[in-house]
Amino acid sequence: MSSALDRLKNLTNKISSYELTRKKNMTHLQELFVKIGINKKIDIFEEIFLFKAINLSGASLLEESLGEIKEGKYLQILAISYDKEAKIKSKNTSLAYFGRVENVDTDFKNSVVEFIIRYRFEKSFMTLEHYNSMLGDFGKTSE
User: Longest C-alpha distance within the chain, in Å?
Assistant: First the structure.
């Protein structure tokens, strides 16, 4: 019985840790939203989550080379939207353009990279919640 209780305590601690991290993440994400100027293109912060994804060109988002610049490229934030009714289903929208990556201040570039990682962190939770909800529908019987 004790091991089951210990597992439950560990799970509860992990979930509460994720929720605290998630809350802090959203605060930082909103600050970065303004700092890097996304608010000039999108008025309402929550609308960034309407995009399917947000990508970055000009700097690496890979764990082993996070933030490394790609010489000769342009630092740009691209949002991907999807419209199943449109002839061309996927659409890229530039949310911010900062010029040649090697000319961008390193601290600012790091803020841009941080914005993308923080966005993806929150978006992954939203996706998890969405699929969790969908799975719940399988257990329901039709009347």
Answer: 63
8 A C-beta contact, residue 22 and residue 125: yes
Residues constituting the chain: 143
**How far is 56 from 118, CA to CA, in rounded Å?**
13
pLDDT (tens digit, 9 = 90+) per residue, 19-30?
889 999 999 999
CB distance 79 to 112 below 8 Å: no
Structure tokens at 103: 């000319």
Residue 6 tokens, joined: 């210990």
The H-or-E segment that residue 97 falls in is strand 90-100
What is the Cα–Cα distance from 80 to 100, expressed in whole angstroms? 22
Asked if residues 32 and 109 have their Cβ atoms less than 8 Å apart, the reply is: no
For the CA atoms of 22, 94, 108, 35, the dihedral, rounded to the nearest 10 degrees, stands at: -60
The tens digit of pLDDT for each residue in 44-61 reads: 999 999 999 999 999 999
Radius of gyration of the chain (CA): 19
| Overall pTM > 0.85 | no
For residue 129, give both structure tokens: 């919640």
